[in-house]
Design a protein that fits this description.
alpha/beta
Amino acid sequence: MVVVKAKPNGHAQVVDTRREKPDLHDTLVRKASTWLRKQGCGVVVTDSIQAITPSGERPDAIGWRDGLSVLIECKASRSDFLADRHKPFRVVPEEGMGDWRFMLCPEGLIAPEELPSGWGLLYLSGQRVCSISGVPTNTEWWAKKPFRGEKHCESILLASALRRYQRVYGRYLLQKGVVLTGR
């Protein structure tokens, strides 16, 4: 399969995935994106968008669904998980993105009791993402949000993603008669 990726400088990069074996973290991010879409997130942004936010947070995957945001941090190793605890937006959860926050890791890498308060846990088991803890039922998405995500940072990330999308796909869309305004 051939995939077009937006590079941080706004240029497109064509990647032939048949020749490039993804590492575990890339696999987790792809699975996170798919899981977010299955949860009803109509817009999903992954870590390929390197936006600079005031908090410094760069989520691996974040999606938006009916006025709420769902963040997933992908952890391929224990050391990555342990280092994440010391980030400023983890120490002060009010500065972090996501009304809902999840860790996605290989099965058994993280135990539910090790998570920061309010976080949910997802395991990658084979090729499936399994809900381990903290995943709400349909109506709980709105009624029981454990956080109020930092909307300013989320808006900056989303605007950055749209700018990159416009640069990569703008010419194609113009040829089809779709007009995008902005930079």
